[in-house]
Specification:
- By secondary structure, the chain is an alpha+beta fold.
- Helix content is 48%, strand content 14%.
- The protein contains 24 helices and 22 strands.
- The strands form four sheets. A six-stranded mixed β-barrel has the order 3-4-9-6-8-7. Strands 14-15-20-17-19-18 form a six-stranded mixed β-barrel. Strands 2-10-1-11 form a four-stranded antiparallel beta sheet.
- The radius of gyration is 34 Å and the shape is elongated.
- The model is unreliable at 437-443 (pLDDT under 50).
Length: 853
């Protein structure tokens, strides 16, 4: 211990006498350790951290699938269920002491406090069965959570409010508990407040503000559009709490057999769906997975991006380690006379090595301490970039014990990593060096090591710069692609639903009035209504075309669709290819018509076929003549996903028209599609100025109509790529850091080489070499090292591009632009880093250089 304290004291005294060196090394390491720790912090929060609930190890999710758009059709890996199917599953899983189902989505509902003069708020709300809080093991912070007795249709409607909403929206007012909230015009009593830190079972941006009993869904949604008793509508996830004496052994197989029986007998699938369902029956499985960390939606969405950034940060860390190793090697060379004297006086080589490693470990620990500050800032920056539109994000970037352990372990590992070469070099000093006046005649055994470390830095820098350039170019291609509509001068408004009692002709009349009033707002040139706006949602159905044979098993007959007001497509700037847009005559008294996009034509019609005046229907054979095609438009991007894929088939139908279906399932879809969720305004007025005017217009039509959000179409496009922008921005930032570190390393090596070769340079100049020759020799040596890094780095950059290819859009994995940028950037960094030492060398006076040492 005394020896350890002595070595520690010696290292600290050494750093005190060379503060610039110590600060440079610590800051260099802080960038690498801090970035890596930041990404690990987020990976821990998103992928590893347990839910803030009681005994999360006993929680299991029924099904691990996450196909968000199946709504009851075969899912393959099942993860979504209808309520009738959940009731069957509950009866088939006695191993669970509690089991709950909850909605897969968090909806926005109009909420205002009864008896308080305030405008309605669009609060985030989700449904859950009465066993939700009991299953998760969550008690109320104040009041009580709802229970099984509250989850009955005849029960008094209650709601549980999140702690965050209670504090931020209601100022922590104790009287909120027991008060009445008017949710979509219906009275709900606030039974309690959820505990602080509880965000639900799913880590997501903007978690629920309110939880409602599942049996109240028909009250809010309306009997005609309710999902509760629809056997085909898969909209619930399921989590159970395992009994202490039970296991899940064999549960997967048993539930899979049960699922397939249910699909054949009780699911209520239309008859024409059954051949395709039978064809895919062997793929239908249920897998029971641990749910202690919750439903991994964010893990699925961001896991790959976080892994990419972690690899980037590790590469920056390696460059930082190489840089500090070069610094320590330079110090070791400068101190080799001192080391030789100590060895000659009896110091052991072990002692010298331990002292060298102690210095490196202390530097690494200092880098870790500063790196934790960098990590917190970097994690916050990533969250701000990836979730630019979020108002609440339940991710804490404060280092947890696991993260602290990771940072300390990383520091010790890096300390040994970059300290090993200097420590080894320290033992290679011959004591006889202490008897010599100079080291001119002795070869520098560290030169090869320093050059190797520099080549490693250059190689990794090429890979990072090329990869970040590919990601940046891909993002530019995504944002700059033709979306099929005009982005400038368009404002999108997301709006809540009116009360369920407002339906039929009354609903249509209200929307007609709203559209007219919105168009009269000063500065608004046009207004249109839609089931949903571009890049915000996606509705899809199977399409059957009249006059064509039934689709073959496995054929893709899916198409997105939207319901829009008369001039919506024109006002959005969607290009008409053939036929016509909708007209005022396309109303409730005329035949049902549709406008389709070019992708629709390519999927459902053969080349040369004329789609105009052809008819098609949805899902069922009896619907095949429902719509007549009157126009073809360009492939506008409406679906808010897969924007790096070709445009989906899509059709549009008039908001003013209604279809009468014989099928209850289809009629429910038809009725639900008449509730407007999106408003388009053609205006150059800023969205902040428009919002109060739009809110007043909606409230005048129905107090429950609330503005959920309002933003320009340009903003909506930008927010569609928040994740890609975050990855590209941070990768670019780390690429620049890597270049700077490589330039610093090259500068250090070149400056050191010039210092070692002062006598040689003086001799060259004495023999007739001019300044240009000297500069050429120095730059040539520097660029030779960089050239080796380029030769090694280019194939690695192509390999990295191949691994990134799934993330790239319009960019090849061997992108010549990215490779050229990487080569040019490294060459420029090399020139900047080596020109100063080269100039100093050329400025040496030959006689002074020859007299040195």
């Amino acid at each position: 211990m005394s020896a350890l304290i002595r070595d520690l004291t010696y290292a600290l005294r050494t750093f005190r006498s060379s503060r610039v060196f110590a600060a440079t090394a610590v800051l260099t390491l802080a960038l690498g350790i801090g970035g890596t720790t930041a990404i690990f912090t987020l990976m821990h929060a998103v992928m590893l951290k347990s839910l803030p609930v009681a005994d999360p190890s006993r929680l299991y999710r029924i099904g691990d699938g996450d196909n968000c758009c199946v709504m009851g059709s075969p899912q393959g890996r099942w993860g979504f269920y209808s309520f009738p199917l959940f009731e069957y599953i509950k009866a088939e899983t006695p191993q669970f002491e509690n089991i709950t189902a909850f909605s897969t989505f968090v909806g926005r509902m109009s909420v205002r406090r009864q008896g308080v003069p305030e405008a309605p708020r669009p609060l985030r709300t989700m449904y859950a069965t009465g066993g939700y809080f009991t299953t998760l093991g969550v008690a109320a912070f104040t009041g009580r959570v709802f229970a099984a007795a509250d989850d009955r249709a005849a029960a008094e409607p209650v709601a549980v409010m999140s702690y965050n909403a209670w504090q931020n929206l209601y100022g922590g007012d104790p009287s909120v508990v027991g008060s009445t909230l008017m949710i979509e015009g219906h009275a709900f009593t606030v039974s309690g407040i959820a505990p602080p830190g509880f965000f639900g079972e799913t880590l997501r941006a903007d978690p629920p503000d309110l939880w409602l009993p599942l049996q109240q869904e028909p009250l809010i949604t309306g009997a005609d559009t309710s999902l509760l008793r629809q056997p085909v509508s898969a909209w619930l996830r399921v989590i159970g709490r395992l009994r202490a004496d039970a296991t899940i052994d064999g549960m997967d197989a048993r539930l899979t057999v049960f699922l397939r029986q249910w699909m054949r007998k009780d699911a209520g699938y239309p008859a024409n769906w059954m051949p395709e369902i039978e064809r895919r029956m062997s793929e239908q499985t249920i897998t029971v997975v641990p749910a202690g960390a919750g439903v991994g939606v964010m893990k699925e969405q961001y896991g790959r991006s976080l892994r990419i950034l972690l690899v980037v940060c590790v590469m920056v860390l390696l460059i930082a380690c190489a840089n500090v190793a070069n610094l320590l090697l330079a110090r070791a060379v400068a101190r080799r006379g001192q080391i030789a004297v100590r060895l000659a006086l009896g110091a052991s080589r072990t002692q010298i090595v331990v002292e060298a490693l102690m210095e490196s470990v202390l530097l690494a620990v200092g880098g870790a301490v500063v790196g934790l500050v960098v990590a917190i800032g970097a994690a916050r920056l990533l969250l701000a970039l990836a979730f630019a539109g979020a108002t609440t994000l339940p991710i804490d970037v404060t280092p947890s014990p696991l993260v602290l352990t990771f940072a300390v372990g990383l520091a010790l590992l890096t300390g040994v990593l970059f300290g090993a070469a200097p420590a080894w070099f320290a033992t290679r000093t011959d004591p006889i060096e202490a008897l010599r006046a100079t080291g001119r005649s002795t070869s520098d055994g560290a030169s090869l090591t320093r050059t190797t470390l520099l080549v490693v830095q250059a190689t990794l820098s090429v890979v990072l710069v090329a990869g970040s350039t590919m990601l940046g170019r891909s993002l530019g291609n995504l944002e700059g692609q033709d979306f099929g509509f005009d982005r400038s001068g368009r404002v999108l408004v997301s709006v809540g639903r009116p009360s369920a009692e407002v339906a039929g002709e009354r609903l249509a009349a209200m929307y007609r009035d709203v559209e007219a009033q919105l168009a009269r707002i000063p500065g608004v040139r046009a207004a249109g209504l839609a089931l949903y706006n571009p890049l915000t949602n996606n509705w899809g159905e199977g399409v059957l075309v009249a006059g064509k044979p039934p689709p073959a098993p496995g054929a893709d007959i899916g198409s997105s669709w939207d319901r829009v007001s008369t001039r919506y497509l024109q006002d959005l700037g969607v290009k008409l290819v053939r036929g016509r847009y909708f007209a005022e005559s396309d109303n409730e008294r005329s035949e049902n018509v549709a406008v389709v996009n070019e992708a629709f034509v390519r999927r459902f019609f053969s080349p040369g076929e004329d789609p105009i005046d052809r008819r098609f229907g949805l899902n069922l054979p009896e619907n095949v003549n429902t719509f007549r095609i009157v126009g073809i438009v360009g492939d506008a991007r409406f679906a808010g996903f897969q924007l790096n894929q070709p445009a989906r088939p899509m059709f549009f139908v008039p908001l003013a028209q209604t279809v009468k279906y014989a099928s209850p399932l289809m009629q429910r879809v038809e009725t639900a599609s008449h509730y407007v969720g999106g408003i388009l305004l053609v205006t150059n007025t800023p969205s902040g100025t428009l919002e109060p005017l739009v809110a007043r217009t909606l409230a005048a039509a129905d107090p429950n109509l609330t503005v959920i959000n309002i933003r320009t179409l340009e903003e909506q496009v930008a927010r569609s790529f928040d994740q890609q922008r975050a990855v590209a921005s941070l990768a670019g930032l780390f690429g620049v850091i890597a270049l700077v570190l490589a330039a610093i390393g090259l500068y250090g090596v070149t400056a050191y080489t010039v210092a070692r070769r002062r006598n040689e340079i003086g001799l060259r100049m004495a023999l007739g070499a001019d300044r240009r020759d000297v500069i050429g020799v120095v730059l040539g040596g520097a660029f030779m090292r960089v050239a080796i890094g380029l030769v090694l780095g280019m194939p690695l950059a192509v390999g990295a591009g191949y691994l990134l290819s799934a993330q790239l859009y319009g960019v090849s994995f061997w992108d010549p632009v990215a490779l050229s940028v990487a080569a040019a950037a490294l060459a420029l960094a090399a020139l900047v880093a080596s020109v100063v030492p080269a100039s100093r060398a050329a400025a040496l006076a030959p006689m002074i250089a020859l007299r040195t040492d």
